[in-house]
Structure formats: C-alpha cells, structure tokens
Amino acid sequence: MKLINIGFGNMVNADRLIAVVSPDSAPIKRLVQDARDRGSAIDATYGRRTRAVLIMDSDHVVLSAFEPETVMGRFENEENKGEG
Prior knowledge:
Elements: E1 3-7, E2 10-13, E3 17-21, H1 26-38, E4 41-43, E5 52-56, E6 61-64, H2 68-83
Parallel strand pairs: 4-6
Antiparallel strand pairs: 1-2, 3-5, 5-6
C-alpha cells in the first residue's frame, strides 16, 4: 500500500485514487456537495481553501488544501520510489 501525503500529515491510499481535480468547476462543486450530503466527504483542509479534490474508488471525496499538481507530484514520487 502506497500512501500519499495530501497535507498536514493526512495520507490517502494511492491504489484507491481515481482522480485529482480542481474544485473550481460547477460539476465538481456539485460532486463535493453531494458527497457532503451523503456523508462521504473527507475534509483534510484544516480550514484552508480547498485547492484539490481527490476522487476515491470507494465513492469518497477527499478535499485537500494542496494544488492538484502538488498532489500528483507526490503521487509520481511515490511511484518512482517503488520502482527503485
């Protein structure tokens, strides 16, 4: 199991990650609101602005205060560690 740091010591399982997207578009805002309504949103922003939304294969939506590029960079670094 590979874990990705999504900020403030919070980690997600890289094997369960489907997508990392920006929260700015209306469809993503609706997706986040729907996840909050059904109780499957995980807010890992510690009160900061949401800059990335992580979509998991378990229908959970994880909110991060890091940019999507930062999260994906950490994902790629984790992938490279596993190869070496």
